[in-house]
Amino acid sequence: MLKRWLAVPALLMTFAAATQAAECPDLLQGSLPKLRAKESIDLCQRFAGKPLVVVNTASFCGFAPQFKGLEALYQRYKGQGLEVIGVPSNDFKQESKDGEETAKVCYVNYGVTFTMTEPQKVRGDDATHLFKNLAEQSSAPKWNFYKYVVDRQGKVIADFSSLTKPDDPQFLKAVEQALASKPE
Fold first, then answer.
1. What is the tens place of the pLDDT at every residue in 76-98?
2. φ, ψ dihedrals at 182, nearest 5°
3. Catalytic residue positions?
4. What is the pLDDT of residues 1-58, one digit of tens each?
5. How far apart are CA 179 and CA 152, in angstroms?
6. Contact (Cβ atoms closer than 8 angstroms) between residue 27 and residue 133
7. Where are the domains of the chain?
């Protein structure tokens, strides 16, 4: 009898994990290593049900000053649930091969407090799952600082080129639309 009672919590945990996986959008399946940390970010656990801005970054790109605008955006809307995910990439040959240098640019030079990952592939067959899914829903990044606005269900509302600054009215409109989206 005791064995049966011990099996109940295990079954409940299995059911809870299956339910969580079912609720997690495909976009957020998997994890990414956090920049200059010994931890990985479980995308589903951390971001499911939240509006997102996902941007591929590069430390040595002429658009790097957009880090300041992205941080200002994050500070402005984080109280409403917005999350910003910065994913450094060397796909366009403008990112350091040294994560420590990337971290210095993000954290020290620009004061970034939003989530940053270790450098990842964001284009082509080797792209991380997150960016493969973004590309399937809209298009692959055409350059560094390509921005995606994602609603609470994991659907891309809009994507914006590197030329679009984080305070652009159309970009802000898409962010506010993502904030207004209801969780499933």
1. 999 999 999 999 999 999 999 88
2. -95, 140
3. 61
4. 555 555 555 444 444 443 344 589 999 999 999 998 889 999 999 999 999 999 999 9
5. 8
6. yes
7. 26-180
Mean pLDDT across the chain, nearest whole number?
90
User: How far is residue 158 from each of residues 3, 17, 86, 170, measured CA to CA in Å?
Assistant: 52, 31, 17, 10
For domain 26-180, the CATH superfamily is Glutaredoxin (3.40.30.10)
Show Cβ contacts of residue 85 under 8 Å, excluding neighbours closer than 6 positions.
47, 52, 53, 54, 55, 114, 115, 116, 117, 130
- CA distances in angstroms from 31 to 27, 73, 101, 174, listed in the order given: 11, 24, 22, 26
- Strands (E) located in 6-109: 31-33, 40-42, 52-57, 83-88
